[in-house]
Amino acid sequence: MAAPSEAAGAPPPRHDADALVAFALALLRASGLEEALATDVAEVLVEGDLLGHDTHGLALLAGYLGELDRGAMAKSGAPDVIAERTVAATWDGRRLPGPALVRRAIEWAAPRAREHGCATVAIRRSHHIACLAAYLEATVRSGLMVEIYSSDPAVASVAPFGGTQAVFTPNPMAVGFPTSGDPVLIDISASITTNGMSNRLKAAGRRGAHAWWLDALGQPSDDPAVLFTQPPGTILPLGGVDAGHKGYGLALSIEAMTGGLAGYGRADVPEGWGATVCVRVSDPEAFAGLGAFMLQTDWIAQACHGSVPRDAAQPVRLPGERALARKREQHARGVSLHPSILPALAPWAKRFGVTAPVAVG
Do the Cβ atoms of 130 and 99 come closer than 8 Å? Predict the structure, then answer.
């Protein structure tokens, strides 16, 4: 059933971003999550909502709290170092919260990239890492390039091109790089849509804008419910039935970057909702120099903006451009949460005695 504001056509209420972080932090702290880890999770989730990735922001928090409650997400500690060289490391994440592990991987890699040019961390047995774009901006604005790759070896919902049985997760990747203006923030997946969006549409009884799924017989469908039949359907790889070999190739590459480099993935016994991750940081100064780098990225940015749009009402944007504009607007006016988010957190707030944030508009 739609929320009252949604049903009436009114805009959803807005909430102060800092208040949302404090609310999430209070819930995570009450669940027993170590303070530093809880801070990372709360900040990364709200950053996802600020950027407009509202299936991968606070929408994930109820699920995370459930994992903490069941002991499926570790509440304290640090990753174990499996291997380490000057600019490469492999960590066992010990089922710690993904936002904390990814932030620590960037913190490990960034100074080494400044010294040696590039640095990479592969992480096995991380818990879910939320919105990949949420990790990029600050490090990229410091003049570095960041890449993040992720897969979940416990889940399969995407079929290989030409197949009808799932092998992959949507396998997201993010790339952020600097220009002389706002950075470019790319956050995409190897599939047409995600599990989170499929679940949201199915729960709302809605269909996709296009045939984003295959049913169990391999027929294209715009109904996410095909994922929940027996046998289940699948999400199409990026490119769909016509050019899905491209998304298929990307999914395979991400499997190699994550499970391959970490030495842990789909060949192993699944442990539950989580992630295998690769984080790579590069310093343009170690190559042709940051100035030369941005000469090229600025030219590309200007050329994209200058391309005559197919629809004059929708000029060409760069990846992350709308997200950063939305973040600035929501910092000023409050975060517009999807109407399903706070109701899903209400039972946890009641259980822990945490007061939900008051709407600001």
Answer: yes
Cα–Cα dist 72/95, whole Å: 7
DSSP code at position 228: G
CATH code of 343's domain: 3.30.1370.60
Beta-strand runs (E) in 248-287: 275-282
Quote the DSSP letter at residue 191. Answer: B
What is the tens place of the pLDDT at every residue in 216-241? 999 999 999 999 999 999 999 999 99
Whether residue 145 lies inside any domain: the answer is: yes
Please check whether residue 207 lies inside any domain of the structure. no
List the Cα angle 280/64/154 in 5-degree steps: 65
Q: Could you report the per-residue pLDDT of 310-323, keeping only the tens digit for each?
A: 999 999 999 999 99
Tokens of 33: 């999550």
Residue 317 belongs to domain spanning: 12-192+236-352
- In total, how many domains does the chain have? 1
* Nearest residue to 170 via CA among 322, 50, 275: 275
Q: What pairs with residue 189 in β-bridges? A: 172
Q: Where are the beta strands (DSSP E) in 127-268?
A: 145-151, 172-177, 184-189, 213-214, 220-221, 234-235
